[in-house]
Amino acid sequence: MEIRPTTDQDLEVFVDTIKAAFGQFREATSDGRGVSWAALEMDRNLLAVTADGRPVGTAGAYSFELTLPGETVVPAAGVTAVGVLPSHRRQGVLSAMMRHQLTDLRARGEFLSVLLASEAVIYRRFGYGPATYTQRLTVPRHKAALALPRARGSADDAPATGSVELLRRAECGEILEEVYDRYRRAQPGALSRPHRWWDLGAGQPPVSPAPRHVAVHRDADGVPDGYASYSLDESRTLTVDETIATDDAASTALARFLLGHDLVTQVVFKHVPPEHPLRWQLADFRAAEVSSDTDWLWVRLLDVPRALTARGWSTDGELVLDVDDPFLGEHDRYLLTVRDGKAECVPTDREPDLSLDVSDLGSVYLGGTTPSRLVRAGHIRAHHPAAAALADALFHAERPPHCLHWF
Q: 303-356: per-residue pLDDT in tens?
């Protein structure tokens, strides 16, 4: 078997192979637009082929930016299109491709890679750990009343600021792109959506050109600062693809608009962070049914010192991390020193505070999973009683991470 990089000439073979791995067929397209794979970067993809030239596996990557705690924006490889034909599974093809890909990412100078896991049991062995989480909220229309407490000292007739405008998806592509970009730069765990994605309509709504209604919120000066993309089906269920807002006022205004929609039986918010305030804003706290509470973005550190010094930190302190990376056959110990929001990470021979797998380091990296939880779960070993609490304080993020982007 050979694993080789692809070129533009391999596009159809690459897509046909990954589709077959998932039991699907390539969508027909006359101009290469409006399909999930339209934004593939063929110079970043790999194809596994047999000795007689038959393609049996694929692995790809996108060039993204990831927002870290401290509103630091860094490059990250978005691993995608990973699959092996059913006829060639459990023969080492996947492991060979993942090892080849990680080596290639390091050679490119990248220190972080991320992915969305089709199955939760696959990617931990390759060094990835779940780092952000998401859930679905379903609110029956007859229980959708909001009961927002007034701020202390506010007047009953205080005027609402801003406005909501209803547009069609085809009318507001530039607005969506601009608002999302402002949002993702301030949201830890968020990925960029390159202009190429919007231009080609790659991915899922609202990036794709699928018909959608879009509620755009504008602030008091008329500047767009939020949007919600949604559709309404025959059962009168209003399904919200995503709500993007640059502040809480815009988020609340959009929620009020969606929950107040006439001729609707229920409103489904497909993709909200576990810490979303909507349930607390409802008059009936139990009205919002939580479902599909699951992982979303998985993170893999390719260069531990570079990754740890790239993010922002809110607490000073020192921590010795003993990091095992069995997939790449590496084991290193680092002294992490944080002062005034910046970190230094260097090799050390000091006794460790924590021993952990690189996948667990990926899980705690964005602040969405506490080290103490993984200590309790038996993933991380704490070498003294204060180690877990110290790690919790250091890795804590002021804003919980969340990722909306599908890739």
A: 999 999 999 999 999 999 999 999 999 999 999 999 999 999 999 999 999 999
Q: How far apart are CA 402 and CA 276, in angstroms?
A: 10
Length of the chain: 407
CB-count burial class (<10 Å; 0-12, 13-18, 19+) for 393: middle
Paired tokens of 289: 């049914």
From the CB of residue 51, how many other CB atoms can be counted at a distance below 10 Å?
A: 7
Contact present, 290 and 268 (Cβ < 8 Å): no
> Within 10 A of 116 (CB to CB), how many other CB atoms are there?
16
Q: Is 93 annotated as a binding residue?
A: yes
Dist CA 146 CA 158 (whole Å): 17
- Cα distance between residue 386 and residue 390, in whole Å: 6
Query: Residue 186 contacts by C-beta under 8 Å, 6 or more apart in sequence?
Result: 67, 71, 246
330 marked as binding residue:
no
Q: Are 300 and 114 in contact (CB under 8 A)?
A: yes
List 62, 64, 111, 123, catalytic entry: 123
Which stretches does DSSP call E strand in 69-184? 72-84, 112-116, 129-130, 133-140, 163-168
pTM for the full model? 0.95
Whether 84 has a binding-site annotation, put simply, is yes
Task: DSSP letter for 399, please.
Answer: S
Domains of the chain: 2-110 (3.40.630.30), 136-291 (3.40.630.30), 313-395 (3.30.1050.10)
